[in-house]
Design a protein that fits this description.
The complex is a heterodimer. Chain A is mainly alpha-helical. Chain A contains six helices and no strands. Chain A has one domain: Arp2/3 complex 21 kDa subunit ARPC3 (Orthogonal Bundle), CATH 1.10.1760. Chain B has one domain. The C terminus of chain B is likely disordered. In chain B, the strands form two sheets. Chain B has a six-stranded antiparallel beta barrel with strand order 1-2-5-4-3-12. In chain B, strands 6-7-8-11-10-9 form a six-stranded antiparallel barrel. By secondary structure, chain B is an alpha+beta fold. Helices cover about 30% and strands about 30% of the residues of chain B. Chain B starts with 9 loop residues before the first helix and ends with a strand. Classes of the chains: A mainly alpha, B alpha+beta. Chains A and B meet through α1, α3, α4, α5 and α6 of A and α1, α2 and β5 of B.
């Protein structure tokens, strides 16, 4: 991974963490999981798959460190989501809408895993009021954002202006 | 089309990372959030909190404006209701001022003087939440403002919110009582028990031990003197369903007074007061007077005083 790519990816994660913990934490309807979305969109780039899994793990760990749930929970969830994204990313390159749906479905898998593993480890902090609604709202928000930003994100990270033009 | 397939090393990498993640989780749970993990969390919060504060400074007015625009109709109704409440409270205030004057008169008459230490109060702004699922709140005050782990947090009306979980120099993480890992010792009338968080609901479960009397809708639930997390007498919520005791126990639902997700401002209480270091008031800390006693069993009780 080149220095420029490292800087771009790091900036994307920092921006995602800051926006997620401030702007989107105050909105009840539009509540994306921006860090998970960045992980998913990164799987569409040309970054090496093994490296991507490491990046997903580190991103999850960063969110864990800022949250109140057990350390390692999101790291595991994001790594699994990244693995599934890498295995299925061929299907996301068909069109913009498909890319959005693909990101939404992966987010749904991710948040369900988060709640399931969190429940197994007794993380009541994740299971408060409206958890069922959020299981639906978070993937929808990620779907919308992926639909709009995924192609541009891939082009910026890969420095390839022809990527995701859906010819 | 993308032509890059996951290589053969993807699965071993996944398994390795999952094992590391599970080990981290086990380690964190076993160490109960202390030690290395606590240091890591403090460091991470220390790095991110200046950025969060800057973002909150920009974002909060925008979020409030959007919130106001989407809630114009309900805001009008709320305004009317609040106006009514203000009138009622004005009347109550006059009555309380009369009581206070009477109280001061009796104090002078019997040469009484309220004793106790000062309870520090640090107002803090809520700058965000970790994510959509994590119910914790991030505030803009930290250890440099005198906040330490475990301190109770109330809202500006004095209702119980939660307690401090993590602290960095510039920020702190608060876990609300509605999602916290443990319950809060409370009392309803002269009966004591515990309120516990529940899954996927804002309401909490009230369990009264050795219950003798029934509880009714609207009964006030306050923190009890047996609480190790809150001073006694902090309002928690009100009972939402009538219940009678059965086999000396009573279980019912309680609606907390506070909805943590909507909070913008909270107050961190310096409780229990430091028995060694006297509190030095600073620019951010205002004080109220409280007398706290700890009995032989470690139970703590607090009574409010006027000076």
């Amino acid at each position: 991974m080149r220095v420029r790519t490292i800087v771009t990816v790091t900036l994307a994660f920092v921006l995602a963490i800051i926006l997620q913990t401030t702007l989107f934490s105050q909105n009840e309807l539009f509540t994306p999981d921006l860090v998970m979305l960045v992980v998913i969109m990164l799987c569409l780039t040309k970054i090496r798959p093994e490296l991507l899994l490491g990046v997903a793990f580190a991103a999850g760990l960063a969110v864990d460190l800022l949250g109140s749930a057990v350390l390692g929970l999101r790291a595991i969830v994001f790594t699994i989501v990244a693995y599934l994204a890498l295995r299925t990313r061929e299907r996301a390159d068909i069109g913009r809408i498909i890319t959005g749906i693909w990101a939404g479905v992966l987010t749904f898998v991710g948040v369900v895993l988060l709640v399931l593993i969190g429940t197994l480890f007794g993380q009541t902090v994740l299971l408060g009021d409206g958890v069922v609604e959020r299981l639906v709202l978070v993937p929808i928000a990620n779907l919308i954002l992926a639909l709009i930003f995924a192609p541009m994100f891939v082009r910026v990270v890969d420095r390839d202006s022809t990527a995701f033009r859906y010819a | 089309m993308l032509n890059r397939q996951p290589g053969d090393r993807t699965l071993p990498t996944l398994i390795t990372l999952l094992v590391i993640g599970l080990l981290l989780m086990t380690f964190d749970i076993r160490s109960e959030g202390a030690g290395v993990t606590s240091t890591l969390r403090t460091g991470a919060q220390g790095i991110v909190s200046p950025l969060q504060k800057a973002a909150a400074f920009v974002v909060n007015p925008i979020a409030d404006a959007i919130d106001s625009m989407t809630n114009v109709a309900s805001l009008r109704e709320q305004n009317l209701a609040l106006q009514g409440e203000i009138d009622e409270l004005d009347a109550q205030l006059v009555a309380i001022q009369d009581d206070l004057a009477l109280f001061e008169f009796y104090e002078q008459l019997y040469d009484l003087e309220a004793t106790g230490s000062e309870l520090g109060r640090t107002p803090a702004q809520v700058i965000g939440q970790p994510d959509a699922f994590d119910g914790a709140l991030i505030i803009d005050k930290g250890s440099s403002d005198g906040i330490v782990v475990g301190q109770p947090v109330i809202d500006t009306s004095g209702y119980a919110v939660g307690s401090v979980l993590q602290v960095s120099p510039g920020s702190a993480t608060i876990v609300p009582i509605t999602v916290g890992p443990s319950g809060v010792a409370v009392s309803v009338g002269n009966q004591v028990g515990e309120v516990l968080p529940q899954v996927n609901t804002a309401e909490m479960r009230l369990e009264l031990i050795d219950a003798q009397d029934p509880v009714f809708v609207g009964d006030r639930v306050i923190t009890s003197s047996g609480s190790v997390r809150f001073p006694a007498g902090i309002p928690v919520g009100e009972v939402t369903a009538d219940a009678s005791p059965g086999n000396d126990t009573l279980s019912t639902q309680v609606r907390p007074y506070v909805e943590p997700a909507t909070l913008r401002l909270v107050v961190v209480l310096a409780w229990p007061p430091d028995p060694i270091t006297p509190l030095t008031p600073d620019t951010t800390t205002t004080t109220a007077t409280t007398s706290t006693t700890v009995d032989g069993d470690g139970a703590t009780s607090t009574t409010e005083g006027d000076g």
